[in-house]
Write a structure and sequence with these properties.
This protein is mostly beta strands. It contains no helices and 31 strands. It has a domain of 155 residues: YVTN repeat-like/Quinoprotein amine dehydrogenase (Methylamine Dehydrogenase, Chain H). It has a four-stranded antiparallel beta sheet with strand order 1-31-30-29, with no helix packed on it.
Length: 352
């Protein structure tokens, strides 16, 4: 339903802005209670306010039983067995390495990923750390479902695949050797189907970029393309999946030539939707399904979908929302990148 008073829910936190970083994440452990990462700090949200837990953290994952795993700087993973347990520290990689993600799915996990293609798998009470023979640099985003993992390689802007918890593989993409594909984000459906979004410069980058959504289904790649139109370049920047190859992508580029933001419904024949209020590219999107979705841009705008209607709210004009994330309860967290206190978070449950 409509936003309540967002301004009263603003909290500001300092961050050291470590590079490279993973995406903002949030996980619910119980109704009204969530962990989330902002900057390099793990916070706990009790439904009313957020409290700082531990620093040096880039990513968090919470099991259905409330067990918390947090990946971080200097090759360290932090673990909390129950909501009242003390935090323990486990070193899984050398201290010069940063872990960008941690997850568990099926028989695999928890799995931590990071610098130089590091892949650390916990088996019993110990960790096994592996590195690919052909490293891809930093795995900057990592998703798992159905016992398989998919990641984005920062140095290559390409795709990495993890099957069986053994090593990263780099599947061939449906492009020619002269095409330049820059993957920006990924999501994996509950059925294990990954979708990557980004921009494609065909034939060595001699023309304008196309926005591309790339799905992997049945061992084959399925591609959806947004043509440049009058804009010089089009890019898909983030994706939310509600099912196998269905959901929404957001991006930048428009029919008038201005770099305006747009929504693209995946898995259909729909044309991109350009809201009148999207004066810049829409950077981030998150949702629970097709009817409950939130997106944000760097001009302080937030769009939320209730049913089949997109609603707009200018939350705060001096904000620059870099990322949006949420938990299973529908609480939404927005990360601001526009101030020295650059982890400004706004949280509000916007649906009944």
């Amino acid at each position: 339903m409509p936003f309540e008073v967002w301004e009263s829910a603003i909290e500001s936190f300092h961050e050291s802005d470590p590079e490279p970083r993973s995406r903002m994440t949030a996980w619910s452990i119980a109704p009204g209670q969530s962990y989330f990462v902002a900057g390099d700090t793990l916070f706990f949200y009790d439904g009313t306010e957020a409290s700082e837990q531990i620093g040096g953290i880039t990513n968090v994952w919470v099991s259905p039983t409330g067990e918390v795993w947090a990946a971080g700087l200097e090759g360290v993973v932090r673990h909390r067995a129950t909501p009242t347990s003390p935090w323990s520290e486990e070193t899984v990689a050398p201290e010069h390495e940063t872990l960008s993600g941690i997850f568990a799915a099926g028989a695999i996990g928890p799995v931590a990923v990071g610098t130089y293609g590091t892949l650390a798998v916990r088996e019993g009470e110990s960790w096994t750390t592996l590195r690919p023979a052909d490293p891809c640099g930093f795995i900057r985003q990592h998703e798992m479902a159905g016992g398989e993992g998919w990641g984005l390689c920062a140095s290559r802007s390409t795709v990495a695949h993890l099957s069986g918890g053994d090593t990263w593989e780099y599947p061939d993409l449906p492009f020619t050797v002269d095409d330049l594909f820059y993957a920006q984000s990924l999501a994996v459906s509950d059925g294990g189907i990954p979708t990557f979004v980004g921009l494609l410069y065909a034939n060595g980058g001699g023309g304008d970029a196309e926005g591309v959504a790339l799905h992997r289904s049945g061992g084959e790649w399925v591609m959806e393309v947004v043509e440049p139109g009058a804009s010089e370049d089009v890019a898909l920047l983030d994706v939310h999946l509600a099912g196998d190859m269905t959901g929404f992508a957001v991006g930048t580029g428009g029919p008038s030539g201005a770099p305006v933001g747009f929504f693209l419904e995946l898995g259909g024949e729909q044309e991109p939707f350009f809201p009148e209020t999207a004066y810049t590219g829409i950077d981030s999107i998150w949702g629970l399904d097709m009817e409950r979705v939130v997106a944000a841009d760097r001009a302080g705008n937030v769009w939320y979908r209730a049913g089949d209607v997109w609603n707009h709210e200018l939350v705060c004009g001096d904000r620059s929302f870099r990322e949006v994330a949420g938990d299973q309860e529908g609480n939404v967290f927005l990360l601001d990148a526009n101030a020295e206190d650059s982890a400004v978070l706004i949280d509000r449950q916007i649906w009944d």
